[in-house]
Queue: 2 jobs
Job 1
Amino acid sequence: MAEPEMQTYFGDLHNHTSYSDGSGTPTQALAAGEAAGFDFMAISDHSYAISDSEWADTLSAVETATDADFVGLRGFEYTQGAEGHINVWNSTRHATRANVPGCTMCDFTPNLEAGVTVQGFYPWLVSAVNTPLDGAGEVMQFNHPGWINFNDWFYHPEVAGIARLEEVGNGSGTSYVFSEEEFIRSLDYGWKVGATNNADTHSTQWGTNGDNRTGVLMPELTKAALLEALRQRRTFATEDKNFSLSMKANGAWMGSEIANTGTIAFEITGADGNGELASLVELITDQGKTLTSTVPTSTSFIWEPEINVSTGVHYFYVKVTQADGDYIVSSPVWTLGTEDIAITDITIQPTIPTIYSPSLLSVRVTNRVAEPRTVTVSIEVNEVALGTPKEVTVAGNADGIVYFDWAPSIVGPANVIASLT
């Protein structure tokens, strides 16, 4: 059967109203977003503040606003100050960090207010009490991870089927944050999430307070098609509301998990509706390393790099930098494999090493499969081996830490490289 032709649609998946700490009503917000050119828009008020009547009214507003040219989604933002904020769209009920008197559609998730972990929320996501509103299903997004990062991105495979997206960009004006480094960290720690960019609007300037958008590839503009595209991670995060980006890897759309055949043929396309030129296009992989890049010579381009891939699980995404400094980031593709273990962090104490006292290097190894794995960690400093390699056994879906003592002897830059065997 022939694959349906994909179209690019633009919108925003993170908006607030007076039903929490924003302004206006959902009806006003949706009308403003559509007038500003959104093809789709989600209302995601803070869950702890939404009454039953407001929850019902938000659903009525998005259903009334949805037609052949625009799709509205009802969602909520779970807000837990110590560990992070999360959007969930198209759920029947909503989780709260506190027991809200009189709220029959709220589910109090224990241990959130204490700020220990997000583990009070993840079980709710996969519990029987959390059901989709309809057959279109529900999808979850990690919000503005530059603020706080979800128990340092500790991986929970049980929510992988619903945790599908992450904001690479969030906010507007002086509050805007581009969080590619956190995006890379989450991917390195095992989360398979696509890229979004949303304004997180709290004022009445829905759709007009910035040019950042979430781009989505789908065959038609319907609620079901939108949620399916979000679930499949056919998305990109753009700071330019006119830029369209797509990527295929061995014929599979961005967001896909593909067999590791040893080589990947990419088809990357980009176009700017206002004729702006991209100054750089990069293909990026594990730990945020740029594999290859190109400089387009026209405002629309097709780039078809082919790369060799080592065994195991890897991710690849595209980053476009425009001449005016705007960034556009695609969702990744992932190769499949039975081995999925990687170095996900290196830290040093004290943070500024000196020749006068020894330092401690800590290497974090993340095992993203269910069975334990034993690996050997080595470190080089300026291409010279540091001590002897150290073996570590890491439990399934867990982290292991390996420590190395380092006594710098020379003043100047130091290039520290950790590797696994």
Job 2
Amino acid sequence: MLACGSTKSPATSTDPSNPDDDPADLAIPATDSINNGRFTTSPACAQCHSNSTDADAMRDEDDREIAPYDLWQSTMMANAARDPLWRAVVSAEVAAHPDSKDAIEAKCMRCHAPAASEEARMSDLTMAMDLLKADSDVGNLGRDGVTCTVCHQIEADGLGSDTSFSGGFVTAGTGSIYGPHDDNFAMPMEHHTGFSPVHSEHTTSSELCATCHTLFTNPFDDQGAPTTVEFPEQTPYLEWQNSVFASGDEAATCQDCHVPDTSVDGQAITTAIARNPGGFDFGQVDDRSPYGRHIFVGGNTWIPAIIRDYADVLSPLASAAAFNQTIAAARYQLGNKTATVELSGLVRTADRLQLSVRIANLSGHKFPTGFPARRVWLELVVEDADGAVVFA
């Protein structure tokens, strides 16, 4: 956190080697509710897609609350624009290449603040990190991270193609909210938000996720000039596409792991997908299946903990309890569903111990994947018969 706190502001960087020279202000405002007809911030969706003590909707077989808004709000998706590490990295890149500030910030915000990026495009505005603190539609949409009306408005055309990668998604901003269900009871959404539910299976495809989770950037040459070389900054989708999880007996989409349609106990979920804004069940809404739990769990526990602990500075929507739930889910997935470790061939010769270690990757892509600074360590501890550590 101290490293992030000493990083220079993109708008005012002068000497990034001097942490006392106008240090960055990490404070970021809370998200206000806005709805401009093209996009809305998540509280509008929470009117019907959050849990209520007076409604049975959006609960699993054990009556656990699994509303989309409630699960999403503490994820890295929701907090993509509040992430202090990401903001520090962008600031450092801009400080190193100030002449390319606009291009760097626009590229990075395309997927960390996608609604703001699309709103800026439609409004003919220049996308910049400073907008994240602005009291405007773009600012509030940006602070809402990877928000509901971005993912659910992405058009199906072109998904999975090279042009769709690196934030190449397309939204029309016409109010069509895509989802996996047909025969929808549309009136409440249309009345309360102005948006309309539309059936489309592409929301359950890995190609939807590929738009931001396949990222190529253009590095600078030795003189600091941008090049046309495409550097694969992260490629989880392409890794998945070339794995056994893309097809065959072990096939699984991104959503199967990150927006699972089963409960924590592995039971298929069937539930109403909304309740009314008054907190009660809609009489006209039947239980639906599949129902995806919007947990978006990955391997990141550090940044959610920072945002939780510095909520007075970073102003997230979620409570500390919600962040704790997301962190616990990530740790469970890392410990139980990411990889297996098998030891074999244990041989001791005098004071020498030899063994083979086999690690099987269960994640569906490289492990670790995504942001290239991530690392995994294998720790081997040897104890004697009394439990004392003799090697570590």
